[in-house]
Amino acid sequence: MKIELIQPFINAADAVLAETLQCPTRMGDVTMDEEAYRRKGVASMVTIKGDIEGRIIFDIDSPTAAKVASYLTGSPVPESDEVARETVCELANMVIGSAITTLNDQGFKFKIYPPVVHADELGEKSSEDQEALVMCFDTDSGNIFMNIAMRYNRRRRADSRPS
Amino acid sequence: METFPILIRKDGKPIRYLVVDDSVFARKNVAKMVESFGGEIVGEAGDGCTAITEFDRTTPDMVLMDITMPQMEGIEAAERIVRAHPDARIVMVSSVGYQENIVAALQKGARHFVQKPVKSEILYEVIKYVMGDDAAVATPAAQES
Q1: Min Cα–Cα distance to chain A from B141, Å
Q2: Residues with Cβ < 8 Å from A158, sequence gap 6 or more?
Q3: How far is A76 from chain B (nearest CA, A)?
């Protein structure tokens, strides 16, 4: 996956998490995920279709999700609460929406679908065609993970044309 | 939360809002902000179709509408509401803020756009701008009564 695709997500996560959680964020490890995606806690997935296709999963372990939800709602939220899942979905929506805005301004055209809770323990395995990259953001509330698997549709179409 | 001077309608009553977003969390967040401005939430909707029926039921002074939603997206809902109620004041509130999305929303009748995460000071100024002469900052005496 090219850095031009990844950078908007890093910038968006950094800005949105810092603004929303009112704390500095530090970017931790970035790793390639060659195995099937395994959910860490409360996860929300956004699908993108168009010049770039793929999915982004926002994943927060349950205690951190509850802490973030409690901070944002101003009242204690239990780990299993629906509000924690809602919070993760909305954070995903804001981070991914912001990154998509940047990519769109760079000329990529696509459609973004509303975030859905990723309830399954396991997701699809990444492929040579669509590698998955996992980023970790360290916040005062705990670690927040973003798992990105995307590919260029436009380039694929161009590559597949007969020469 | 930052405090703002209370915004009221010209007739001295609270500004009535319809908040539309598929995320309950986002609706509560926006509702909390507008209530801190002195507004009243008269309806909520989680998709564009419900937004249309809720608009007809509540006839709010202002709609705060998300764009990316299931069933019917915010821009289409805005267009349908404005077609039926040309004076409807609709402000799009979305995390997806690229130029063509904003232009499309404005062309369909939305009055303004606020990007998520919503900053209360920006939302306050946008509401004040969109309400125009139909709203005013409440005087301390009016706030006490």
Answers
A1: 30
A2: none
A3: 14
